[in-house]
Design brief:
13% strand, globular, alpha/beta
Length: 342
């Protein structure tokens, strides 16, 4: 286990994950220098409590305590605002140094946000801590060995209980998260999602997309215990078991095709759940027609849907701009290796 000390910094002791604190009044260059040190390490895992001589063990839920997701992820009567937390996952990038510029952008653009990077060991500890040792979610996650399915699943599990912003490692922050939601709307918005595809006036859909307007899940922002996240955790957990059964496989040995990933844990499954949730919540049929061609954010219930250039600027379709626009909040550089065999 590797440990590193960060002088003059108030640690988030509660979470023994790979984490960086809110820098606030600290020099931003110090934050960048610290991250540069981290990214030179291929695989790392920090035990913050051990660094500070804290002998208390991490509280892990009792066996089976939260097998009922309704109990674990029950939503409060009034959801809290999106917390100042940024989460990223490292499963498929062996050399973080290649992505350090993107990672810096999230920390330096958001000095008042906590930053947490989860590697394999930290991810497993997170799930054990929050979902219980023997819950269905924990068993599913631990049995699942495919890194792409795991990474997709984990982002939902993290945001469901902790909330905050999740973004892939190959994304960069363009605007501070505090500016994503207009001040006049902050009291209403408890989730921010964006488009990755819009059919617009085309008569045929592009390959790889299953919805005329499909939502991305490479960047997401949510309040903790948001009912939409609870729903996606439930749906994805069931879909993973169903996929294994269809392939006559165990979760451990599951080898998905690209389409399997899209439909089980990826943007197609995510979009399916989003449409179902928005329709049920508003008691109105919500479909792609509510979002196609949108140029301004649209709020449905407490979910703010941002236009194509917010998270998907630079793609070669869907009316996306080649360069950043006033709407651009984050940019995806598509350097990931999610595709099977890629």
């Amino acid at each position: 286990m590797l440990t590193t000390s960060f002088p003059n910094v108030n640690y988030q002791r509660r979470h023994p994950y790979v984490s960086m604190p809110r820098y606030g009044r600290y020099n931003r260059l110090a934050a960048a220098a610290t991250l540069l040190t981290l990214t030179a390490i291929t695989s790392y895992y920090f035990s913050i409590s051990a660094q500070h001589g804290d002998k208390r063990s991490v509280p892990i839920k009792e066996v089976g305590l939260h097998d009922d997701l309704d109990a674990l992820l029950s939503s409060p009567a009034r959801l809290r605002p999106i917390p100042k937390k940024i989460w990223q996952i490292n499963y498929t990038h062996p050399k973080l140094v290649d992505l350090q510029e993107y990672m810096w952008s999230w920390i330096l653009q958001n000095p008042r946000h906590g930053y947490t990077l989860l590697n394999k060991e930290a991810a497993e500890l997170f799930v054990l801590t929050h979902y219980g040792i023997d819950s269905r979610v924990t068993r599913t996650f631990m049995d699942l060995h495919n890194t792409i399915l795991r990474s997709d699943y984990l982002r939902y599990l993290v945001l469901a209980v902790e909330g905050g912003v999740y973004s892939d490692l190959d994304t960069s922050a363009i605007k501070p998260v505090e500016r994503w939601v207009p001040r006049s709307l902050k009291h209403r918005v408890r989730a921010v999602i964006g488009l990755e595809y819009d059919i617009l006036d085309s008569e045929t859909m592009l390959p790889r997309f299953l919805f005329e307007v499909q939502f991305c899940q490479w960047t997401l922002a949510f309040s903790p215990r948001h009912p939409l996240m609870k729903q996606v955790v439930q749906k994805v957990t069931s879909a993973l078991h169903q996929l294994a059964e269809e392939k006559n496989s165990t979760l451990k040995d599951l080898v998905p095709f690209n389409d399997d990933v899209l439909k089980t844990t990826g943007p197609a499954k995510w979009s399916e759940v989003v449409y179902e949730y928005l329709t049920r919540t508003t008691r109105t049929e919500i479909s792609w027609k509510n979002f196609t061609g949108m140029e301004q954010p649209v709020i449905v219930a407490d979910v703010m849907v941002v236009p194509i250039n917010a998270f998907a600027v630079g793609i070669s379709h869907s009316g996306s701009s080649e360069s950043n626009t006033e709407d651009t909040l984050a940019r995806h550089h598509f350097q990931g290796s999610w595709r099977v065999g890629g």
